[in-house]
């Protein structure tokens, strides 16, 4: 994935470029709003990571201008302002995701990958997901393990649906909270973990190698490790 | 500024001077009009007397001609008094009279004229003022009849004197009165200023003096004192908060630093070093959460941008949160019961409401444990024009005194110290309630604790807007 980081704090952007490259991605960076805008219009990027406060042109104006120019590259906004209304402002300006500072790199990586995937493979349009012997039908709301239908609560179904949509990729707890529950605050407890362990008890029961993995310090991933 | 200059510059003194001028003009006007009226009355009296004399003398003339008239005039001249007579021939020769023919003002018309006269036989230097009237007698005789008005002049002088004296006293009393009032005023204002300076210098216990007379300065001082009391209260609150922040943030920062130091210790096992780093990140995350909570509370208390509030369903938010926490409760052997209706519309922010409800449930799970009745009831219902969201546990509860201070920042009760937590949950919930023009009630649940978030219901005719997240 090709990433453009528009961030004026040199130390932060150096760290991000290095970290993304270590993960096998191509990462460029711009120091201010104007050069970032030019690079975003010309380069073919999968994701833009934009700081909200930038010299020469602030982050939100940059995003609005890009959208006016029909540049549809997904944008992830980084902001030191973590309040609810700031988030809303960012999304209204045309951002696709919002991450308050300070953040964990694993969180940023997971979110950037999710945004890039949305662009490359429109997997969200699929109606049938399959990971190993686990199948989920989005239309009939049926879930089968080895051909055997199992019963899930509505929320468990949405949780599994989101995990399978992003199969093979890490999803973080806050991503789950935002996409499955549609809330954007941190509940400060192991709420998500408990829901995951409930789901796990239903889909990974008696399985030698589980499908649903906990990625330490990052989140969860559903993956057919047998293959 | 000299002390005297200060005195002259006061509002009280300027007002005194203004009133002094006004009163002086008023006194002048009153005395002038009294003088004018008195003169009018006296002149009228003289006119009537003169008219009567003329009638009587002209009767004498009709009865006995010039001879009888002369006799009559002569009789009157001899009688003492202020009446003046002069009978002359057409040529101006004096027949009889008690004055010389007036020289300065010739009297030709048949009306009273003010002039000066000279009594016959008196030295020339003593002219007197008089009112005289000319009466022409058939046969060419001229009769001047009039009255001395020396006493009018005296009266006028008395009035003028009175004006002078009253003005003198007015100015004297006015100036000294004004100075006295100004002095009193300056004295009180100086005392207040001194108090204000002491307060500015940091003595927040200083108060403005109240004389007890209930005047405008007292009222002002009372209001300022009330304001000072409020400021002192806020400052005390701020000091407490900053003390708490210092304590509650420095402790984890110290822990973090210690961990980082121990991770750097040479010869340690790499796995142990990694564990220390993970612990540092966890500690940092906790700190960030505390910062976010503090910022949120501060912003909610500073008024926040209430234009981001839309009509949303509080019942649905409560339902979501109860559902989110139900497995967590179950894992701890606690039943989380939901008693909620839907369609409980409030003007609010569902994220913030969700956060408040989560804080209440979290507290109930942490501190409301009960072996006998492990049950937490989360409810949302309509109560009149309010929506009440309540989380009730059956745990040990909280004493009435402690319930009072639970919503303070960083307040952690003694028996809760063993549990993780920042002591910000309830103060955040209270701030969110205030932001929604609501309130947070903490009550005894007999047994246990019940915390109720009471919010004003959205009016029926307000439009049901879609939450902006969608």
Q: Mind sketching the topology for me?
A:
The complex is a heterodimer of chains A (227) and B (470).
Chain A: E1 2-6, H1 10-22, E2 26-30, H2 33-42, E3 47-51, H3 59-68, E4 75-79, H4 84-92, E5 97-100, H5 105-120, E6 128-131, E7 134-137, E8 142-145, E9 148-150, H6 154-165, E10 171-172, H7 173-181, H8 191-203, E11 212-215, E12 219-222
Parallel strand pairs in A: 1-2, 1-3, 3-4, 4-5
Antiparallel strand pairs in A: 6-7, 7-8, 8-9, 10-12, 11-12
Chain B: H1 3-9, H2 11-78, E1 83-88, E2 94-97, E3 113-117, E4 128-137, E5 141-148, H3 150-200, H4 216-264, H5 270-301, E6 310-313, H6 314-331, E7 335-340, E8 345-348, H7 350-367, E9 375-383, E10 386-392, H8 400-405, H9 425-435, E11 439-444, E12 449-456
Parallel strand pairs in B: 7-9
Antiparallel strand pairs in B: 1-2, 1-5, 3-4, 4-5, 6-8, 9-10, 10-12, 11-12
Describe this entry's structure for a reader.
- The complex is a heterodimer of chains A (227) and B (470).
- By secondary structure, chain A is α/β, with parallel strands linked by helices.
- Chain A is 41% helix and 22% strand.
- In chain A, helix 6 (154-165) crosses helix 7 (173-181).
- The longest helix of chain A is centred in the middle third of the chain and has 16 residues, at 105-120.
- The relative contact order of chain A is 0.10.
- Chain B has a five-stranded antiparallel sheet. A five-stranded mixed sheet of chain B has the order 7-9-10-12-11.
- Chain B has 470 residues and is of the alpha+beta class.
- Chain B has helices at residues 3-9, 11-78, 150-200, 216-264, 270-301, 314-331, 350-367, 400-405, 425-435; strands at residues 83-88, 94-97, 113-117, 128-137, 141-148, 310-313, 335-340, 345-348, 375-383, 386-392, 439-444, 449-456.
- Chain B is rod-shaped, with a radius of gyration of 51 Å.
- The chains are: A alpha/beta (227), B alpha+beta (470).
- At the A-B interface, helix 4 and helix 8 of A face helix 5, helix 6 and helix 7 of B.
């Amino acid at each position: 994935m090709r990433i453009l980081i528009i961030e004026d704090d040199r130390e932060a952007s150096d760290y991000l470029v290095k970290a993304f490259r270590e993960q096998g991605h191509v990462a460029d960076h711009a120091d201010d709003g104007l050069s970032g805008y030019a690079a975003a219009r010309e380069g073919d990027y999968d994701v833009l990571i934009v700081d909200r406060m930038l010299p020469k042109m602030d982050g939100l104006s940059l995003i609005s201008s890009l959208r006016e120019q029909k540049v549809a590259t997904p944008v992830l906004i980084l902001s030191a302002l973590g309040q609810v209304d700031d988030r809303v402002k960012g999304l209204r300006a045309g951002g696709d995701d919002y991450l308050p500072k300070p953040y964990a790199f694993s969180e940023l990586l997971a979110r950037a990958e999710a945004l890039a995937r949305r662009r490359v493979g429109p997997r969200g349009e699929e109606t049938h997901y399959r990971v190993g012997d686990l199948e989920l039908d989005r239309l009939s709301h049926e879930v089968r393990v080895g051909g055997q239908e199992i019963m899930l609560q509505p929320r468990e179904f949405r949780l599994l649906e989101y995990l399978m949509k992003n199969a093979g990729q890490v999803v973080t707890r806050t991503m789950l909270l935002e996409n499955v529950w549609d809330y954007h605050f941190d509940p400060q407890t192991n709420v998500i973990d408990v829901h995951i362990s409930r789901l796990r008890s239903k889909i990974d029961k008696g399985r030698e190698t589980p499908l649903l993995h906990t990625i330490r310090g990052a989140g969860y991933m559903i993956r057919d490790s047998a293959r | 500024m000299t002390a005297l200059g200060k005195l002259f510059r006061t509002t009280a003194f300027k007002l005194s001077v203004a009133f002094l001028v006004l009163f002086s003009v008023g006194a002048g006007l009153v005395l002038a009009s009294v003088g004018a009226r008195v003169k009018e009355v006296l002149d009228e009296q003289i006119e009537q007397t003169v008219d009567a004399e003329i009638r009587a003398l002209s009767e004498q003339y009709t009865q006995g001609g010039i001879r009888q008239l002369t006799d009559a005039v002569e009789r009157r001249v001899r009688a003492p008094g202020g009446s003046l007579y002069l009978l002359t021939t057409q040529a101006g020769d004096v027949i009889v009279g008690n004055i010389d023919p007036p020289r300065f003002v010739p009297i030709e018309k048949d009306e009273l004229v003010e002039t000066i006269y000279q009594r016959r036989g008196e030295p020339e230097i003593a002219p007197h003022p008089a009112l005289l009237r000319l009466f022409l007698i058939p046969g060419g005789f001229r009769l001047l009849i009039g009255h001395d008005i020396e006493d009018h002049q005296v009266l006028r002088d008395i009035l003028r004197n009175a004006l002078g004296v009253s003005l003198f006293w007015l100015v004297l009393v006015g100036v000294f009165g004004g100075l006295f009032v100004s002095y009193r005023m300056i004295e009180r204002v100086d005392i207040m200023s001194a108090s204000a300076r002491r307060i500015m210098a940091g003595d927040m216990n200083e108060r403005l003096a109240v004389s007890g007379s209930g005047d405008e300065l007292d009222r002002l001082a009372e209001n300022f004192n009330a304001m000072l009391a409020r400021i002192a209260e806020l400052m005390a609150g701020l000091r407490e908060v900053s003390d708490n922040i210092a304590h509650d943030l420095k402790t984890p920062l110290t822990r973090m630093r210690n961990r980082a130091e121990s991770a750097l210790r040479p010869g340690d096992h790499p796995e142990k070093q990694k564990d220390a780093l993970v612990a540092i990140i966890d500690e940092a995350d906790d700190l960030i959460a505390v910062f976010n909570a503090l910022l949120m509370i501060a912003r909610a208390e500073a008024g926040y941008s209430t234009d981001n509030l839309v009509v949303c369903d509080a019942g649905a938010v409560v339902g979501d949160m109860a559902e989110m926490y139900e497995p967590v409760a179950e894992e701890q052997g606690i039943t989380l019961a939901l008693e909620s209706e839907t369609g409980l519309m409030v003007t609010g922010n569902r994220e913030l409401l969700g956060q408040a409800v989560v804080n209440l449930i979290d507290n109930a799970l942490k501190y409301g444990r009960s072996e006998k009745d492990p049950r937490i009831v989360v409810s949302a219902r309509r109560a009149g024009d309010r929506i009440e969201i309540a989380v009730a546990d059956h745990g040990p509860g909280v004493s009435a005194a402690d319930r009072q201070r639970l919503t303070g920042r960083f307040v952690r009760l003694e028996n809760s110290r063993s549990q993780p937590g920042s002591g910000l949950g309830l103060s955040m919930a209270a701030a969110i309630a205030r932001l929604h023009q609501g309130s947070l009630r903490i009550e005894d649940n007999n047994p246990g604790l019940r915390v109720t978030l009471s919010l004003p219901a959205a009016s029926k005719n307000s439009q049901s807007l879609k939450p902006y997240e969608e």
